[in-house]
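Please predict the structure of the following assembly.
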Amino acid sequence: MAMIGSSCFTSRLLFLFHLLLVGASAFADDDFTFVVPMYSHEFRLGTSNATVVESVNLYPNSTLPGFGNIIVLDNSLRVGDDPNSTVIGRFQGVLVFADMSINSSLSAGNLVFTGGEYNGSSIAFFGVFQSFAGSVRSIIGGTGRFGLATGYLVNEPIVYTSPTTLYSLWTAYVKLPPR
Ligand SMILES: *[C@@H]1O[C@H](CO)[C@@H](O)[C@H](O)[C@H]1NC(C)=O
Ligand SMILES: *[C@@H]1O[C@H](CO)[C@@H](O)[C@H](O)[C@H]1NC(C)=O
Ligand SMILES: *[C@@H]1O[C@H](CO)[C@@H](O)[C@H](O)[C@H]1NC(C)=O
Ligand SMILES: *[C@@H]1O[C@H](CO)[C@@H](O)[C@H](O)[C@H]1NC(C)=O
Ligand SMILES: *[C@@H]1O[C@H](CO)[C@@H](O)[C@H](O)[C@H]1NC(C)=O
């Protein structure tokens, strides 16, 4: 079981590693105010307690996502990869299949913290989501402790844990303006 608790140094190395993976090394010198790791847990589309719905489905006879489809998610954010680990918030957002090759989508969402150190605060993000490759998305704002936030939200490729569940490690690299 992986738990949160990595040092700032480890987090920074992890971030640099991700930047190398996505070829975005221009961010490497930035300094971040908060590094917030979390696990997004999902009950998959079509299962009994799904945390995902397909609100627009232009291809009802296909089991694959299709260009133009829209998915809405309300996943739990937890401290670990164990589906019973402590909940610290929700990831609430949309995926729009805006890529005709279907391997990536336009995504927007909020990380809404309801427990832990950041209870009551939120992070807003926007960008390209690639479920199989992992993604780096832009943090475009926030509330509470994350007011006026910028930075990057980095996620690992998703891990399927059962026919009905999956998770992914997400790390928010948050930069706040000088106060
Ligand atoms: C779905 O939710 C119901 C009601 O909370 C619960 O009894 C059931 O075990 C859940 N099913 C799964 C697969 O988690
Ligand atoms: C989906 O399948 C049904 C039943 O086979 C068929 O009547 C319908 O035309 C199909 N719809 C599309 C969009 O292909
Ligand atoms: C989570 O908790 C439930 C109820 O206590 C238990 O049945 C289930 O096996 C647990 N799941 C894991 C992965 O530990
Ligand atoms: C989409 O991703 C799958 C799985 O990684 C890969 O096999 C396929 O070649 C990719 N397709 C495109 C168009 O990139
Ligand atoms: C989060 O904050 C709310 C509002 O202050 C409080 O009611 C709630 O108990 C807190 N939750 C946790 C898990 O600390």
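Residues 136 and 154 are 5 Å apart (CA to CA). Residues 114-115, 119-120 surround 2-acetamido-2-deoxy-beta-D-glucopyranose (ligand 5) (CB under 6 Å).
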